[in-house]
Amino acid sequence: MENGEGKKTLVEFIKFNLVSFLVTILQLVLVNVLLALMKDIKTPLPPFLAGIFTPATVGAGNDNWGYVLPFFLSNAIANAVGYFVNRKTTFNSDSPRSLFFVFFAVLTALILFTTWVQGRMVFVIRESFPALYSLAPTIASFTAGIIQFLVLFPLEKYVLFRKES
What we know:
- This protein has helices spanning 3-38, 47-50, 55-58, 65-90, 99-128, 136-160.
- By secondary structure, the chain is mostly helical.
- The chain has one domain.
- α1 (3-38) packs antiparallel against α4.
- The longest helix has 36 residues, at 3-38.
- It starts with a helix and ends in a 5-residue tail after the last helix.
- The model has no long low-confidence stretch (mean pLDDT 90).
């Protein structure tokens, strides 16, 4: 890697982190608003999701659309905003907008995985480390954010917004 390319990647890394911070704020606002709006929706999840978001994973009474959908929607909306901001400001890309569908497919799988990881981590931390009971959701969310960053930064930089040589 040439020195100029290394500097460019460092600048993109910093910009990506700043955008991610704004995405996180948007996601936190959205998830709280959506949870409040959907709290009375107790419609069961379809079997393929019910097998992932079990009461043991997300907590008793939370294995329904009113609980899972706000997390998914807030994450999807916030990361979609981040995608378009990163496309123009971080990576200065004119890649086809159709690549958003590739991004969204990967994002959907990533959200399902990290939502499961968060639920599982909260359960394990609370059971194994009672002193961390109230910090468990924050630790789990932080971990999920790191996982998403480790997937999305290289996906956007090296695949979706790659500059043709």
